[in-house]
Task: structure prediction
Amino acid sequence: MDRALIQAELQTIFHDVLRAPGFVPTPEMETGAHPNWTSIANVEILLSAEELWGFEFSSADIDGVRSFGDLIDAVAAKLG
Result:
């Protein structure tokens, strides 16, 4: 799947979970870049991505996600 499409879908998830429709995460942004981007929100984001694309992140995948760009990479790797 195209990285731009993954990024767009993840932005939609972020808007929904963070309740911040104007927030535009960039690949460099790390967890906590938005006040609503808490550890709990991060779990919701990961679960939403799993549900959307029909896969499960491993513990190693989750440990590697420190930024929005890392999340894009993790999803792209799962989708092949």
Notes: The chain has one domain: 3-22+32-79. The chain has a mean pLDDT of 95. Residues 3-22+32-79 form a domain with the Non-ribosomal Peptide Synthetase Peptidyl Carrier Protein; Chain A fold (CATH 1.10.1200). Residues 3-18 form the longest helix (16 residues).
